[in-house]
Amino acid sequence: MYDAIIVGGGPVGSYIAKGLAQAGYRVEVLEKTTKNNNKICCTGIISKKCYDSFLRDKTLVLKNGRSAKVYSPSGKVIELNHDKDQACIIDRNTLDLSIANDAIAAGAEYYLNCMVTNIKIQDKSARVEFSRDNESFFSEAKTVVIATGFGSKLVEKAGLGKVNNFTIGTQIELNHKNINDIEIYTGRGIAPGFFGWLVPVTPEKALVGLMTKRTPDVYMKRLLSLLKDQGKIDVNQDTPSYRGITLESPKRTYGERLIVVGDAAGQVKPLTGGGIYFGLICAEIAINSLKKALENDDFSAKSLSTYEKGWKSKLGRELSICRWAHKLYTKLDDRQIDKMFNIKTKLAIDKALLESGDIDFDYHSGMIFKLLGFKTLFEILSIIRPSQWN
Ligand SMILES: Cc1cc2nc3c(=O)[nH]c(=O)nc-3n(C[C@H](O)[C@H](O)[C@H](O)COP(=O)(O)OP(=O)(O)OC[C@H]3O[C@@H](n4cnc5c(N)ncnc54)[C@H](O)[C@@H]3O)c2cc1C
C-alpha cells in the first residue's frame, strides 16, 4: 500500500512525487511512456520567476531571453526589449528527467510504460489499474493524483467533469538564419484565435510552432512558407509534432482520495497555453493538502477540497480574466488585430509598459488592466462590434 500514487510523470506529477517522497511518504509514479527518446512537444519558455522558484538547475537552460517581436497580420511589429532577462528557454525533455531524478533520489518509485486505465475508490484505499505490455496490473494507495496532462479520460471517469475546450499545439525544430529574438506571429491566416512562434534555442536551431483549434498541418505549412519567404529559416528537416492544450478546468479537481493537477486540471495560461509555471504552483499547493490528509489520515473529498480552494484563490481570478480576454481575441478579424497594433503605436503602450516595469511574464490580467488604462481600453473596445461580444 502506497501513501500516494501519481498518475503521469510529467513535470507536475514528478514535482508532487518529489515533494511527498522528501517528506518521507511512500510514493509510486505510473507513466505511460518510456520517457526515453520521445521528444516532448513543448517550447520550454518559462519566466525567470518560475526557474528561480521551482527549478534552479542550470543544465536545463538552453537560452535566456529579454526581448521579443510581435507581428501583426499585416506585418507591423511591436518590439519588447527589457534590460534584464525575463524568461528562459529550457530543454523540455531534460526538465522531465531532472524532476523525476530528484523524485527518485528522494525515494519515489517510478514505473514506465504503465498506462493507467481506471481508478476505483474503495473503503480504505484507491485501486489504480494499469496495463503494461498487454498485461493488466493494479496498485493500491491511500490517495491518487491525476497529473496526466491533456486528454486523459481518467478525470471524466472519476466523475469530476469533462473538459471540452482545448486547442492543438504543433511544433517543429529547424535551422534558423541569425534570429536572436523570440518572434510571435498573429492573424487568422497563421493561427486563428492564437499565435505562431519562432523561438531560437541555440545559434543554429529554432522551434517554430503555433496553436490552433483545427487543421494544424495546414497552418503550419503556411507559417513555414512565410518564414522561408522572409529568409528566416532553412528548409524543413523534420516533421512537426502535435499535442493538445487544455483551455478550461474540469468541474471539480478533487474527490474522495483523489486530486487533479497541472494540464489535466486546466492550470494553463489562457493567453499563451503555457502550463509549466501554473502547474508547478498548483503542485506545491497539492503537496501541502496531501501532506495534511496523510497526517490526519483523512482522505475525504472535504479534506482534499482545501487543494482546490488553495489553487483557485491563487489563480482563479487570473484564469477567469484571461479566459475572457482570450475569448474576445478569438473573435477579432485581422483588420481589428492590426488596429490594436495602431492603438499601441498611437498611445506608446509598449514604451509605457516597459518603463513602468509592469510586464509580468506569468500574470497577464494585471498587465491587461494596467496596460490598457481607461483611454486605451475604450479605444480597443470601440473596434469590437456588438455582435462579437457573445
Ligand atoms: C506546442 C506546445 C508548446 C508549449 N510550450 C510551452 C512553453 O513554452 N511554456 C510552458 O510553460 N508551457 C508550454 N506548453 C504547455 C506545457 O507543455 C504543459 O503545460 C505541461 O507539459 C503540463 O505539465 P503536466 O505535467 O501537467 O502534463 P504533461 O507534461 O502532459 O505530463 C503528463 C504525463 O502523464 C502521462 N500520462 C498521460 N496519461 C497517462 C495514463 N493514463 N497513465 C500513465 N501516464 C499517463 C503522459 O505520458 C505525460 O508524461 C506547450 C504545449 C505545447 C503543446
How would you describe this structure in keywords?
binds flavin-adenine dinucleotide, alpha/beta, 10 helices, D-Amino Acid Oxidase, Chain A, domain 2, seven-stranded mixed β-sheet, 37% helix, 3 domains, 390 residues, eight-stranded mixed β-sheet, FAD/NAD(P)-binding domain
Query: How large, in whole angstroms, is the Cα Rg?
Result: 22 Å
Q: What's the number of extended β-strand segments?
A: 18
For the record, the CATH class of the largest domain is: Alpha Beta
State the helicity in percent bands: 25-40%
Sketch the topology as an H/E string, one letter per element: EHEEHEEEEHEEEEHEEEEHEEEHHHHH
The unique ligands bound to this protein are: flavin-adenine dinucleotide
Low-confidence parts lasting 5 or more residues at pLDDT below 50? none
The SS-based structural class is: alpha/beta
Task: Quote the distance from N terminus to C terminus.
Answer: 51 Å
Number of domains: 3
- Per DSSP, what share of the residues sits in E-state strands of 2 or more residues? 25-35%
Number of helices: 10
Major beta sheet summary: 8 strands, mixed
Mean pLDDT, to the nearest integer, reads: 89
CATH topology of the largest domain, which one? Answer: FAD/NAD(P)-binding domain
| General shape | globular
User: Looking at this structure, what is the CATH superfamily of the largest domain?
Assistant: FAD/NAD(P)-binding domain
CATH architecture of the largest domain: 3-Layer(bba) Sandwich
